[in-house]
Write a structure and sequence with these properties.
Length: 393
């Protein structure tokens, strides 16, 4: 199998790099935020994404009738990896999770209202699946949506947690319980986050980033803002999570941090002996390099499977997400170990090994194995859907 880019794909990649060079801005790009760098959470980042939209790149794989280019998934992959490699905002949430779900199952009204705004980056979304008693098990969500025939809609009550963008996004993409059965009684809604009966409270993570608790107190949502069919939200969420597990956990930052560690090992010494000549260190670096290539190829396999059409590639996405995020943690561990005591120094500290990246990645990468479904969830998906093993009750 040929894993190299075609001349046309290489030309697109070059165009992306030229655009990023022309728009280089420290207020937009920050590799030290690791995977959280993808969040479009400041005016400068929103302005940059609007410029990206003007290039026609935000919906490059969308159908032409809705402003896209009917492009191959590899082009979206190239774009997202280039953005991730520079620590810039990425296209995964609005274009991927929300946009592609609305394209697939949304009403004509939802398409007309939201798709043009997504392509112009005029709207930001928060995604609400996790709850205090549900965690990564989306099928166990309890936030309740009660039918209100008099008003023609639904009344939502309950709590979501770990909603990263709720303090700056305009709309909430939220799942709620509309019927008792575990998997078949969930419905997706779009809710404005400035609703007076929604309360957002910040939670600060070990990565120095903000996420949120979100509380619903008799929040009315009209029928027009139900996404797809009532009670079929879990199916839509599952497909959207397949997209999230791939698009929101890019490979480029892993490769970048491996290069940073490799450069350090080439020149560092320990007890006046070159670190690069230590057999344990050499074995560690060889293992990381090999596993990084495995992660890269697993990612390309997701792209190849998605380009065949149909539903998002479930098991391929879970395999990539599981392997890549666990590798990212192992790489962070190795950077701390090989950097020695100085690796505990934070980004920006003078003379810190690897520019202080080791300490920040050690904290940040823990989050990656939780977002989009924990590693345990990914193993269960692979076990059931690929290996045919029974459910673990």
């Amino acid at each position: 199998m040929d894993f190299e880019l075609t001349p046309e794909q290489r030309s697109f990649a070059d165009s992306v790099e030229r655009f990023l060079e022309a728009n280089q801005d420290p207020d937009v790009f920050d590799v030290t935020r690791e995977n959280m760098a993808q969040v479009v959470d400041t005016p400068a980042r929103r302005a940059f994404m609007r410029r990206l939209g003007e290039q026609g790149w935000l919906g490059i794989t969308w159908p032409e009738e809705w402003g896209g280019q009917d492009g191959d998934g590899i082009l979206e992959y190239i774009l997202n990896e280039a953005l991730a490699g520079r620590g810039g905002p990425q296209i995964g949430k609005g274009v991927g999770i929300i946009g592609k779900t609305i394209l697939a199952v949304g009403s004509e009204r939802l398409k007309a209202e939201f798709l043009p705004k997504i392509l112009r980056n005029e709207v930001e979304f928060a995604v609400g699946y996790s709850e205090p008693e549900a965690g990564s098990d989306a099928a166990s969500m309890r936030l309740r949506a009660t039918r209100d025939d008099a008003q023609g809609g639904w009344i939502l009550n309950g709590q979501k947690t770990w909603t990263t963008s709720a303090h700056f996004a305009e709309w909430y993409w939220v799942g709620a319980r509309t019927a008792p059965p575990k998997h078949h009684g969930i419905t997706l809604f779009l809710v404005p986050l400035d609703h007076p009966r929604i309360t957002v409270r910040g939670i600060w993570t070990m990565g120095d980033e903000r996420t949120n608790d979100v509380f619903f107190d008799d929040v009315f949502v009209p029928d027009d803002y139900v996404v797809g069919e009532v009670d079929k939200g879990f199916q839509y969420i599952s497909q959207a999570l397949d997209l999230e597990r791939f698009t929101m956990f890019a490979f480029a930052p892993i490769a970048q941090r491996l290069d940073l560690l490799t450069t350090y090992v080439r020149t560092a010494t320990r007890d006046d002996e070159p670190l690069s000549e230590d057999p344990v260190v050499r074995r560690t670096m060889a293992t990381l390099a090999t596993e990084a290539e495995v992660a890269r190829l697993l990612g390309l396999r997701v792209v190849a499977a998605a380009d065949k059409g149909g539903a998002p590639p479930t098991t391929e996405a879970s395999e990539y997400k599981l392997f890549a995020t666990e590798l990212s943690k192992r790489l962070a561990d190795a950077s701390m170990d090989l950097g020695g005591p100085g690796a505990q120094l934070r980004v920006g500290t003078e003379d810190a090994p690897m520019a202080g990246r080791a300490e920040s990645t050690y904290r940040y990468t823990v989050l990656d194995t939780i977002g989009g479904g924990t590693s345990e969830v990914q193993r269960n998906i692979i076990a059931r859907r690929k290996l045919g093993l029974p459910k673990n009750f």
